[in-house]
Amino acid sequence: MIRRIHKKKVIRALSRHKEVDDKFLEEVKTLSKEILENIGNPIAKKAVRMSREVDTDLHSHKAFLRLSVSPHGILYASSKKLVHHNEKPFLYFLKKRFPLFIILFESNRGVFIIDNSNRIKMTKKELNYVLKEYESRMPLNPLLQNLTDGNFHELWESFALSQLIQGKKESSSILNLSKKWDTKVTMKRSNSKLLDDFLVNKK
Description:
Layout: H1 7-14, H2 22-30, H3 33-37, H4 42-64, E1 68-70, E2 74-78, H5 87-97, E3 102-107, E4 110-114, E5 120-123, H6 127-137, H7 152-162, H8 172-180, H9 193-199
Parallel strand pairs: 2-3
Antiparallel strand pairs: 1-2, 3-4, 4-5
Helix pairs in contact: 1-4
């Protein structure tokens, strides 16, 4: 996320804002570095605010979006919550971390694809259709054949339980994240005493 203000980073993020127009972007580019980075006038204030909206939108997807795995060497995900034009930086972020996979990401603007050439393509076809197209062209990877998505709700609950400290109330941060990403945290204890002992910090 943008913490310290840098003119180049502000302009780069601002150019991906869904409501920015060329006129405003040019106004921001003509501001001196000192005025923009010190939020020295209303234009600078608006530009920094909008750039932070873009950056927050991208960061939330980097941190919380779950990917599904195809045994054909494809990672894929869909999110209707991506507000700004962050598909490309998001795909480059994923590709850097998973260089051996083809990655498909569906937003409200279409399906964005990054393959082994590191080029990004976009199509208006639905994600399921694009996934089947790629799977039909690619062989099964023996190392991925036995992978499943698993029970992410159960994993999330285990993580939430691990944040509990005896005698303290439940973490509001964990609960807020679960509401934001539609993954309810029930905070129920496991039936296994060994698992409880492992997950919960005891005195």
